[in-house]
# Entry
Amino acid sequence: MTLNTIFAFTATAISILSFVPYLKDLRAKKIKPHLFSWVIWSLMTLIYFFAQVSGGAGIGALTTAMTGILTIYIAIIAFRHSDKIIKRIDWISLAISLIALISWVVTNNPVYAVILVSISDFTGFFPTIRKSYNEPYSETLSLYLMAAIKHVLVIFSLQQITLTTSFYTFFLIAENFLFVLMLLYRRNKLKQSKLL
# Structure
């Protein structure tokens, strides 16, 4: 077994395990996923998987495939249990994501795909960021922390590290870590305000 394969299987296992507490919190109605975010993330993860495969990621694309399956599952659940507060900015985020998706289909270029997927992912994240800033306990922090760690391992699992195979992964590492820091900051502020 190669080192790439070990990293790929480890990252995939972390991907599966990271969703366990999220699903528990979802079933217990402790969290409220934002439907728009999860639908966008589902689309973007699948597009990135195909871009990675076409770019020669090899076994490194395994984690992206598993994350895509799990993300679609959460999106389906979110149709029934999602945050029902949809704002104009959420619709704008969805529209930008769809425009990026259409742009990639028109260009049919894997490099453009990962750049557009990254833009779409961020705009798709915005509804969750907006919601979580106001309600920092409405998301399971460990999911995003483990996602960042998982993506670090994905970098080491790639058989070829190119812009196509790794750009989005580096983007996800930064995005997830920053989201975790924002949640920790907002939770701390909320605790402090309750003490006053």
Remarks:
- The chain has a mean pLDDT of 86.
- The radius of gyration is 17 Å.
- Helices lie at 3-27, 35-54, 62-81, 88-107, 110-134, 141-157, 163-195.
- The chain has one domain: 3-195.
